[in-house]
Amino acid sequence: MRELTYYIGVTLDGFIAGPADEVDFYPVTPAFAETLGTELADIQPAHVRAGRGGVDEPLTRFDTVVMGRRTFEPALQAGITDPYSQLRTVVFSRSLDDPGEPNVELVRTDPVERVRELKNEEGLGIYLAGGAVLAGVLLDEIDRLIVKKYPVIVGAGIPMARNEFSPTHFALDQVRSFDNGCVVLEYSRLR
């Protein structure tokens, strides 16, 4: 069975973005970007992979990305209809128009049911690109977390997951720190 991994950046106070979707406050250094871009090259947007010369690199960890409308819309606003062209892309939305890309599947039904179907298929892992509403809906399906904890407090914003009070436990597998003060924490679900 394939695993669903939620890979996300958060502030010290647990927000993935500011109240108006701001993310420009995250400190990213070239060394940090290079390390994560190399380790997680599968989930770099296609234009970033192209800039790194990795367009033809084989996928090693993920072959599918799932996201909600709010995560997909910035690409559409920039004229990009398939931001992760190296991955099978599944977008959950009841309001978006179909972008007309053969690699992009627009799902208007239950995200949990569709993700369970994806997990039962053969292949590499599934990357949950966000955001908070979808992560909350899919919380019981998340097998792994990769959390980039940045050294900044913002006070308000979008939480890592929006859901009812429901303590969900994960085991810490790895901790790494970087030159920008970011700590990357990797967790697996306790079953």
TrEMBL record:
| SUPFAM superfamilies named among the record's database cross-references | Dihydrofolate reductase-like
Supply the name of the protein: Dihydrofolate reductase
- What InterPro entries is this protein classified in? DHFR-like_dom_sf, RibDG_C, Riboflavin_Biosynth_HTPR
* Organism of origin: Microbacterium phyllosphaerae
- Where does the record place the Bacterial bifunctional deaminase-reductase C-terminal domain? 5-183
What Gene3D superfamilies does this protein map onto? Dihydrofolate Reductase, subunit A (3.40.430.10)
